[in-house]
Design brief:
This protein has helices spanning 63-72, 87-96, and strands at residues 4-7, 10-17, 51-54, 79-82, 100-102, 114-118, 123-126. Helix content is 16%, strand content 25%.
């Protein structure tokens, strides 16, 4: 799959997929990497070391700092893949140095798929 590089880098990891937008501020615990948003389809699951796949972000601009905090605390995702990366997520992944690609039809990715991310070239490959 080919998309657009938002933040450079490469990663290979298992996918964790949400069909719902993710709000990082109040949605993911920056100390544990666990989704804490009540009622979210990923509630209780951990994003640490995984390729976090979701359509787009939502919520407060503080979400950028939460993404940075996840990485600084060693509990960040290996990479992020979006249908559309909006400015909150883009700022966060760039600050945190997390590879990120958007413009991807995420319906073709399922939780548990092993993905190889080459954000430098905007490429996502199932392996």
């Amino acid at each position: 799959m080919e998309g657009r590089m938002i933040s450079p880098g490469k990663a290979q990891a298992e996918a964790i997929v949400s069909t719902e937008p993710i709000g990082f501020y109040g949605g993911i615990d920056a100390k544990t990497g666990i989704v804490i948003e009540k009622g979210h389809q990923l509630e209780g699951q951990c994003v640490t070391g995984k390729v976090l796949v979701f359509p787009c972000g939502k919520g407060s601009t503080v979400g950028s700092y939460v993404i940075y905090g996840l990485q600084k605390n060693g509990v960040g995702p290996a990479a992020i893949v979006n249908a559309e990366t909006e400015t909150i997520v883009a700022t966060g992944v760039i600050l945190a140095g997390i590879p990120c690609v958007d413009g991807i039809d995420i319906e073709h990715i399922k939780t548990g798929d092993m993905l190889k991310i080459n954000a430098d070239e905007g490429l996502i490959e199932k392996i």
